[in-house]
Amino acid sequence: MEKIIGINPVLEILRSDKTVEKIEVYKGIKKDTIKEILNLASKRNIKIFYTDRRTENSQGVVALVSEFDYYVDLADFLGKILSKDKSIVVILDQIQDPRNFGAIIRSAECFGADGIVIQDRNNVKVTETVVKSSTGAIEHVDIVKVTNISDTI
Question: Which of 19, 26, 118, 129 sits CB 3.0–4.6 Å from 98 for a disulfide?
């Protein structure tokens, strides 16, 4: 199982249609802080486990998902953006730092990018750190993994 850590990333995954196995909440966290998370989890019938252990940098909230499934097929992505008059696509090559990748995803979402294209090798993959660094923006930006960037362009 993969972890989604932090209040905003957990909120965004609960708002999406992705499958969440369970949520772990640190017992010391104030209920007012995570009221919306608890409500969304209740509506989706997701089990909430309270724990004495606080995961580092998690703000006291961790969602567990089967796997990170953030990649979109290139053909589906092209069909989506070609139907629009104007589209913004960010193409990244050899991004190694997961925090930088998360920050780029966050910025791309703020500027209205439709998607991000990355190469499947020599690039950081979508990991727990990337999802945390994007602070939930990864739920709103398509990420397309391709074999060869120049062929894709």
Answer: 129
How far apart CA 116 and CA 89 sit, in angstroms, is 6
- Report pLDDT for 93: 92
Pairing of strands 2-5, 71-72: unpaired
Q: Which of 77, 69, 20 is nearest to 48 (CA)?
A: 20
pTM of the model: 0.75
The Cα–Cα gap between 127 and 117 comes to 16
Q: What is the pLDDT of residues 12-26, one digit of tens each?
A: 889 888 888 999 999
- Cα–Cα distance for residue pair 51/136, rounded to 1 Å: 23
Please state, in angstroms and rounded to a whole number, the distance separating the CA atoms of residues 93 and 100.
12
Supply the Cα-derived Rg of the chain in whole angstroms: 17
Hey, what's the torsion of the CAs at 30, 17, 124, 121, to 10 degrees? 170
Q: Taking 80 as the threshold, does the pLDDT of residue 55 lie above it? A: no
Q: How far is CA 72 from CA 4, 44, 50, 117, in A?
A: 19, 24, 34, 10
pLDDT at 29: 87
